[in-house]
Amino acid sequence: MKNQKRRGRRLASRGIFVWLLAAVACLSLNLRVLAQTDPLPSWNDGPAKQAIIKFVQATTTQPSPNFIPADQRVAEFDQDGTLWVEQPLYTQVVYCLDHVPALVKAKPELATVEPFKTVLSGDRAALAKLSTRQMFDIVLATQTGMTVEHFRDDVKKWLATAKHPRWHRPYTELVYQPMLEVLSYMRANGYKTFIATGGSGSFVRVYSDQVYGIPPEQVVGTAQAITYSYDGETPILSMEPRVLLNNLGAGKIENFWAVYGDRPYAAFGNSSSDDQQMLEYVKAGSGTRLSVLVVHDDPIREYVYGPAQGLPDTKVGTLSQAMYDEAKKQHWTIISMKKDWKRVFTFDK
Amino acid sequence: MKNQKRRGRRLASRGIFVWLLAAVACLSLNLRVLAQTDPLPSWNDGPAKQAIIKFVQATTTQPSPNFIPADQRVAEFDQDGTLWVEQPLYTQVVYCLDHVPALVKAKPELATVEPFKTVLSGDRAALAKLSTRQMFDIVLATQTGMTVEHFRDDVKKWLATAKHPRWHRPYTELVYQPMLEVLSYMRANGYKTFIATGGSGSFVRVYSDQVYGIPPEQVVGTAQAITYSYDGETPILSMEPRVLLNNLGAGKIENFWAVYGDRPYAAFGNSSSDDQQMLEYVKAGSGTRLSVLVVHDDPIREYVYGPAQGLPDTKVGTLSQAMYDEAKKQHWTIISMKKDWKRVFTFDK
Fold it and tell me: With 60 as the cut, is the pLDDT of residue B317 above it?
């Protein structure tokens, strides 16, 4: 009887031991499966995907000579052509063009003045030839004279109804699924993700949190001057037709330092006119840095432009052959949309 | 025997019941104690403390007609004179003055030019009479020509050794303990806390996280222009003697909208020249808004200036009688450092 009891206890404790062992095995398996879950499922295996994962692992996992403390993990992303579609026109430019008729109605003298004359003509070929300066003039002329709240509400309203001419979907759906995965993956590893856009920060902030999970204070963009005044006794802030922060070209990294005060560890861009200095400056930092170039080479699922098509270097917003060559020389990571992305949009099967 | 067993079981289950009851009572007591823990222990009970707590409760606890969704909870804080001591000179001005001798050594022609002549004279009375424009000239002349990293490192080094002439402590210890509690209390209730300073954002960002728990992207300040160039083949960013963002006066709220894009629900300031428009604009928003004015009326523990001393309205950085009267009229919350604060500094007993 005593022996039976002892044996029973031994069996019971052995049972608990086996159960514990199984539990530990299960847990470690789960952890391993978790660790092996692909953080970038919309990416094909290749040098771009590997470079991004390698960078994140090297900078966030101890022990590593390139470990970065959590409060210094910062990554900067261009928007147009890097996070979402920028063809045939920048979304914000479409917004402004849609407002030109109302503007000319209010100021009829503009009807015969360039660039408004071209806009009203509806001549797409002529429109595509407008210079950056002329685009700026259109943006400043349409986004002005109203209160800051009025502008914000109007952008919200426009985004809710406007559709892209090719996909017939809201512009906010034309974001690249693989890049959304990069944003999530980097944030899950303690990186703060910033948008650095040549467009108006006040335009992008309307949807950045909803679309990219990026809060307003992490959007750095071109900024118009804003003026404080009174409407009767009520204080108001109004949009002025004057550039306060020019976030194009070198301005993109100059202004990032002016409002944040540090060099990012990673930067993603696609344009030689607007992303080159940011990508160069990030790559020139000490330790491991990641500079990534998105190349538009997918004629079926998106567009082909830049070096893939051999467009002239002067074309705004596209990638020049010279910058492509520099990227290769400086060991930036190059993303081929065609080869590296399993799917382009969230709505793609 | 059976009865005894049953009674035993009954007693045991009653024991468990009593134990559970005690545990629940304990837990609810703990929760109540937790809820009753004073979020602002360095504050005396009074209208200022009550107004801050009432505002936070009304905007963050459901049901409330003035509930604010978590992603819209934003509060803005002036720094000098609101979060830390600004007398006898702004800390950043002291930093710049300390750099004038080296500047004049490099550029001897400045020795006979104002305002540098006055600075070199060491005449404190004359120094105190320098205009804002002259202060700006000193800041721009000393904080220039170096790379952005060099400037940041130099500020860090200076802060580690410089001491306040009255307390003989590092400037970063001269922060107001009651205001640190407000920052923590608001953040614990989902508010994002921003610094809106007339000083250089790039100066404040060096210590804002460590001292206030405010990350760099939540510091909006005056910004100098920064220029991208190359040192040999290495890209560098250098400080220019030109103002990019002027965050004084109305600029404080204009620039906040330019880089954030929304109206804060709460704002704290102390100066008529630099905080008035921010406080007015915040208070003019819909729903419950909190505009708070810190009055320096404690001659023993800190300083007396502004309406408490009847200084002239034109004195920079102080509170004019006119603004004090406006604050009363518009039902802003007024903090008397003398009456409302149990202690001023963390190191106070």
Answer: no
The residue in chain B having the minimum alpha-carbon distance to the alpha carbon of residue A234 is: B284
Q: What is the CA radius of gyration of chain B?
A: 26
* Chain B, nearest residue to A246 by Cα: B244
Residue A227 CA from chain centroid, whole number: 29
Whole-angstrom CA distances from B93 to B88, B138, B142, B200 are: 10, 8, 10, 10
pLDDT score for A33: 47
Q: With an 8 Å Cβ cutoff, is B262 touching chain A?
A: yes
Disruptive mutation site among B237, B248, B256 for chain A (greatest number of A CBs within 10 Å) = B237
pLDDT in tens, B324-347: 888 999 999 999 999 999 999 999
A216-265 residue pLDDT tens: 999 999 999 999 999 999 999 999 999 999 999 999 999 999 999 999 99
Give me the helices (H) in A37-176, please.
47-60, 91-106, 116-121, 124-128, 132-142, 148-161
pLDDT value of position A91: 96
pTM for the whole structure: 0.88
Q: Is the pLDDT of residue A314 over 90?
A: no
Angstrom distance (rounded) from CA A198 to CA A186: 23
Q: How far apart are CA A196 and CA A173, in angstroms?
A: 20
A280-283: Cβ within 8 A, 24+ apart: A280/A326, A280/A330, A280/B235, A281/A253, A281/B228, A281/B235, A281/B237, A282/A76, A282/A253, A283/A330, A283/A331, A283/A332
Residues B336, B328: Cα–Cα separation, whole Å: 13
- Three-state DSSP class for residue B186: helix
Q: Which amino acid is at A228?
A: Y
Residue spans of alpha helices (H) in B189-317: 201-204, 208-212, 251-259, 276-283
User: For residues A202 and B237, what is the distance between their CA atoms, to the nearest angstrom?
Assistant: 25
Q: What is the ipTM of this complex?
A: 0.88
The answer to whether residue B46 scores a pLDDT higher than 60 is yes
Cα-trace Rg, chain A: 26
The sign of the CA dihedral A56, A58, A63, A67 is negative
